[in-house]
Write a structure and sequence with these properties.
Blueprint: H1 2-26, H2 34-39, H3 45-54, H4 61-73, H5 87-122, H6 127-141, H7 144-158, H8 174-207, H9 211-218, H10 223-252, H11 255-260, H12 266-275, H13 279-307, H14 309-312
Helix pairs in contact: 1-4, 1-13, 5-6, 5-8, 5-10, 5-13, 6-8, 7-8, 8-10, 10-13, 12-13
């Protein structure tokens, strides 16, 4: 197991190197000059040249990349061109909002999707199956920005039960934090629950017809034991793959939801930085998103070993 983990960690290095390359050079393709955006269109050419030299933007791209990578390895993501604040501190502050929203949305989707998927698979072609499948199709079809706006109109404007914008960390105020989380969590968790439910149903339908399930029933085991101890455990492997991808995407930045509800998360931070041509923030957020994604995929592979002893062997 230890050797497998070490091999996986070593395999992450070229992936992270590729992510850093994309993070640095992709933002360079966006039209516009960050210094021009900061100083304005009527800025003095000498002031523009001085500021470009200050941020190293007058050097060749490859040299800029090597200098930036050297700082990233030391944990320094640079300084924002717009606010002059450390990028690492801004990302750390934004990650609190994104993390609690991502975890809440993922928990909500799992609490809904797995029981619904199991019931739909064990009651195939019944009313329960049709309702669950239709609900999942509707959840996948609803655009998240449209659902978020509807929730704001219904539960913030018409019935002012929940805030329509902003965020409060649960560590600071649990009650207010939960009130601010309700609408964004429903908006984000709906699509997640729909995809997870369909995956759970498909995996369970394949698993319940396996030979070992028939053998377990022939031995006289109770239906609940066969269903949850044997069938569901093996059916969860592809579901865990999907959940791992979803978690990586969520922590990488739920851009649409954070924008609709004006949440100060990493997604909104990235969008604002792109419009402001703030290269260090965009490069830093993309780098952090990529690193989180590959680390979460590693943990997903390790969870396989706990569920399926054959993988451990």
């Amino acid at each position: 197991m230890l050797s497998y983990i070490l091999r996986r960690l070593l395999s992450l290095l070229p992936i992270l190197a590729g992510v850093s390359f994309v993070a640095f050079f992709l933002i360079k393709l966006v039209p516009g000059d960050p210094v021009q955006a900061l100083l304005g269109l009527e800025a003095n050419p000498q002031a523009i040249a001085t500021l470009r030299q200050q941020y190293g933007l007058d050097r060749p791209l490859l040299e800029q990349y090597l200098i930036w990578m050297g700082r990233v390895i030391r944990g320094d993501l640079g300084q924002s061109i717009q606010t002059h604040l450390p990028v690492s501190g801004m990302i750390r502050q934004a990650m609190g909002t994104t993390t609690q929203l991502s975890i809440a949305a993922l928990l909500l989707s799992l609490l809904i999707a797995i029981p619904a998927g199991v019931m739909s698979a064990t009651r195939k072609n019944t009313l329960v199956d049709f309702v669950a499948s239709f609900s999942a199709l509707g959840g996948l079809s609803l655009p998240s920005f449209w659902l978020g706006i509807l929730l704001i109109l219904g539960f913030s404007v018409t019935f002012p039960l929940f805030p329509s914008s902003g965020s409060v960390l649960l560590f600071d105020d649990v009650a207010q934090g939960l009130r601010h989380l309700v609408l964004p969590t429903i908006t984000l968790g709906t699509a997640l629950a729909a995809a997870t439910m369909r995956m759970t149903r498909a995996s369970m339908l394949e698993t319940v017809h396996q030979d070992y399930i028939r053998t377990a029933r022939a031995r006289g085991l109770a239906d609940n034991a066969v269903l949850y101890k044997h069938a569901l455990r093996n059916a969860l492997l592809p579901v865990i793959t999907l959940v791992g991808i979803q978690m990586g995407q969520l922590l990488g930045g739920v851009v649409v939801t954070e924008t609709v509800f004006a949440l100060p998360g990493i997604g909104k931070l990235t969008v604002d930085a792109i419009f402001a041509r703030d290269y260090p923030i965009v490069q830093g957020t993309v780098m952090v998103m990529g690193a989180l994604f590959v680390v979460i995929n590693l943990f997903t592979d390790l969870i396989y070993c706990a569920l399926d002893p054959r993988i451990r062997y």
